[in-house]
Amino acid sequence: MEEPIVVRNMVPEDLNDVGRMAALLVRYHHDLDAKRFLLVQGVEQGYRRYFESQLGDSHTILLVATRNERRVGYAYARLEPRDWNALLDAHGALHDIYVEPEARRAGIATALLDEVKRRLSAAGAPRVVLSTAVQNEAAQRLFERHGFRRTMVEMTEELP
Question: Residue 156: inside a domain, yes or no?
Answer without folding.
Answer: no
